[in-house]
Queue: 2 jobs
Job 1
Amino acid sequence: MLPALTACDDFLDKDPSKNSNKTITEVSQLDALLASYSSFYSEPNYTFLASDDYGLTPKIQSHRTGSTSIDDLNDFTWATNNKRTGRLLWDGEYGKIFRANLVLANIDNVSGGEAEKANLKAEAHLVRAYSLFQLAVCHCLYPSADNANELGLPLRATTSFEEPIARQNLGATFAFIENDLQEALKISKPFLTDAGKMQNWRGTTVSVRAFAARFYLYLCDYTNAAKYAGEVLAEYSTLKDFNDPTEMYYSTNDDTFTINAGTPEEEQIVCKYPYTKLQFYGTTGFTELLEWKELLYARTMSYASWWYIPSQDLLATFARDIKDGNPDNDLRYRYFVIEDFGLRSCERTQEGRSDGYCQFYYDNLISGPTVAEMMLIKAECLARGGNAGDAIKTLNDLRKARIATEAYADLPIGSSADALKKVLDERRREMPLTIRWYDLKRYAWNDDPSDDVTIRRQFYPYTASSVLMNDALVEHVLEPKSRRYALPIPEVDILRSDNVLVQNNY
């Protein structure tokens, strides 16, 4: 049973104002600000639309019964404007940063135990670092030495409405994030309670080190990435075994669609879902997410349009390194790649059939660090360091919990280059859509050209209001190190700032 975390809800639900005069006197009040998991778990992060894991095609567009959001198409084609006004990563993450800053502004002046206050202070630094990192991966160029003076983020360190909101440079942005991370690493709160329950919605020794492993991998600091991943796995290494029928099974809430109705080709199509289908909207609340036994920090990618379309390039990876090249032997494909999901949004004909990717209902995918991610970070660092044997052993330990038992075989040990390719393929299968933009950026700017990716897309031209499906297709290309790897910040926020905020340079 999850703890009641409703304290301060009325306070959190009200927009702050200059005239607010809420007295905070006890550490429990500040703890409640960070304990409200429903205020932190969701990330409306649209970077997946820009990645090669997303597979909108002209065919899908032609047979879609509703319209495709022009905002989505702007991200899909790496356009240099952002017209979104709702469910913004920018608003959401800066809202979390405000809560963290509220804790930091008051922590030294409230009553409570010193150890509790120290942990809460460190946790606030974790929240701020994590949110700034999410924003930087989305909206900024990669933090290479050559990019240090490029545009970074507004660095909000207080709750003052008078604090400057101009964007700092990228070097200062990542220095700020790393400083927050170092403060967050002072957390001394165990991941498991005395009763053996996970505390994955809070800052713990495990969650902060999991984020540190992700942060340093992005910077291609493989020494620190391996160090922190190893520390996580030394404290907690439980995997969810997809072969265990008590862990993974199909939901009883199937959808049935009739295609080609009234014709000799009429057919009933049953669309099956993983057991998490009704999780966020059923009676169980957030229990499935917070009890997902390998989740180390509870965060999910949220997508308002509810259809994560997996690309053919992504789906092809499931046929590699698997018995008979049958992707269904990979249980991540079996449960999460939903055949015929597109019939929810497309015409009910053979042409309307297409896949979807689904974990928690339709709009939420796990984006927070997991045990599996830590194993993959460890394996990647080993492979890049020339230790193919231990890299593949780590990979095999993960795959035993992901590949159907009857189809499982250990991957053979070959060269370090081959091991690295296998690790990167496994990353893509394990964390599709959610982490791919992060990976594409670091691949482009690291010193290894073998993992660079050029994305090419053919799609219809479109205007601010419609897709021109009678016109010839247009090719869109994203090269490694393109300036369009910094997705534009929301134009609505530029207007709100009276143009103090400036758009990325393209």
Job 2
Amino acid sequence: MKKLLSLLLVLCSMVSLEPACAQKFLGKTGTQAWDAMLQKIIPSPINPTVILKTRRLTAIPLSRPFVVADMSAKRALAFSRAMLKETTATKPLVAAPQLHPFEQYAKHFVFTVSARGVKNPFKASGFVFADKNGKDTVLWGFAAAHAVRYMGTEVNVTFYSDGKEYTFPAEIVLTGRKFGLNAALIKLPPAVAQVALPVIPARTLPKPKDLLFTFGFSAGKYKKTIRQTIHSGSERVVASFPFYNQPKPGFCGSLVLNERGEAVGIEVGGYSPKEENLDWYRYRKQLQKMPHANLSRISEIVPLSRALDLLQQYRNPGSSKRIMLFNGLRVGYLRPDEFIESVGVRYQNGMLVKLPRNPFFALEKLHALFHLENAIQAEIVINKNRTETYGYLVNLKNRTVTRVN
């Protein structure tokens, strides 16, 4: 009898029972036969109410409408974590690599952000993350600071799924700087949990040549790109730039994932250091720690750990300033609304080697790109706002630091 009931359950699930029907059936059959057949039951905020996993069968989703009125941020986070455990990168010989099953739900992690009340507004990309504040779980959004700078604080975020649009009013509460912490923190209403899923932060930064999967919106249209990691640092991850099918404006702010489906950071744009004749590109062969890779066309990614500094700053103003070190000597602090405009080293023969802002600076090792033999002084310039700078002079002989306004 138990085997017959188990078989009926499987057949019923294959014809896509409605949730109410499934619950009714479960109640009639009891739990013993059910537990004997199933390994686990996972609540899902997406297509199914329940995903059934058997010892012999693959997951069988029970159908229901996507928008779920009673969905919570906590349940959305639980689904993201469960899905991440199953996510792997596949690399077919012919087709492009994919993340399964993440890509089935990718559009629920990303959104467009646009100025509210504007006709035909520019649409930038953004994505959802979760913050566990005490007992509460709250969904927030991230975008690229430079992409939303002129939108004001009142914006709309729109999710796209199954040919439908789901738009919610939102608020930009804090932004960093384009050449520094290039991120904007977006306060989302609780209702987004009906359609949104939060990312799970990466445990480690990617290694050179690791694949990066980026999901967002290019000229308002959903887009995915795949690239390789060139360099990982505390301030930037540098990746190769797509040679074909390049993204268009609006892609900045897109979600960047590693091969495990974990969130690496925020896409903040690509450029050509070679064409722009940037100093750090011209000096790359003379510098100690510059990656030995093709840097003629690259894109930059703000690590998610850096973007999360904005949330810390929002919760507790002044708490997210970070220490800058040069050759182990504490120089000063960098705030989220500042960036390093240049670092220079002066030598005994009077020569000054000066590098402007670049994606290879690291606050904990500002000396890393320079030869320090016969160096006598370091000069660090901080951009405080668009019209003001200040700096530090580091005496490398007596190891003292002087601030210069």
